[in-house]
Specification:
Blueprint: H1 13-24, H2 35-44, H3 51-59, H4 62-72, H5 86-93, H6 95-106, H7 118-141, H8 146-155, H9 159-174, H10 180-189, H11 191-201, H12 206-213, H13 225-242, H14 249-253, H15 256-260, H16 265-272, H17 275-286
Amino acid sequence: MMTPAVPLPAAATPLVGLMEQQLKQGDIDVPLLPEVAGRVVQLTQDPESDAVQLAQLIQSDQSLAGHVMRIANSAAYSPNTTLVSLQQAITRLGMSLISEIALAASISTKMFKAPGFEQDIENVWRHALATALWAKEIARHCRYNVETTFLCGLLHNIGWPVALQSILEKLDAEGIACDKDCVTALASHFERQTGLQVLERWKMPQTIAETLSYFDCPTQAPNAVTQTAIVHSASLFARHMLTPEALDREQLGQAEILANLNLYPDEIADLLEKSETVSQTMEVMSA
């Protein structure tokens, strides 16, 4: 596994050793994954599960059930139909899609407490959701298994807000002064290591952990080269869509990882035509 080289300001030095020790001891405070969300992940990994089980599981959390139905009935998913039950929604949209909606609703910005960094966490979450949706589009284009790519994209940067929380707690406990740029740089530096601990605590499938481990070097992934490359590429499409001033269309087209997936200019153009659909779906799911 390679850790991305994130430049750290001098003010961050006192915290680096403390965070490394905390990670080594597995002492990171990981937010609890809602019970229903964890069971949804388990259910989607079980080839013998069915729509009835999924409907019953989601219905056990009335708030989640209402959220899922609202999204399922949105113009993004059911423009010409009114769905009246979870069972009908699952039959109409499929178990995989309803599971994705339920998981995105469960894993949200509300899980993280970082006063003063609320907008930063919101931006990270929107990028994660956009990456998940683009990963599905790219996987379809590459004729790759779509079902695992959404969750990989959704969780590829889950370590950032968790690392941020830990850093803020350390700053408070140790009485260390560190400005916002210093804190965000530290969160980026420890994002991957922290993310792996989150996935382990949440008992996520190993393929997601491998995607996160090798996100910055997809070709070195032992078993998930294509999946990791798809998610990495999806993060670039998400970045272009959300902040085109940071990554314009020409720069996106020149990304080496897209060439590794054999995505040629005309294919990249075809994918970018889905930007409006991806954006609309993201807005519905993040509302």
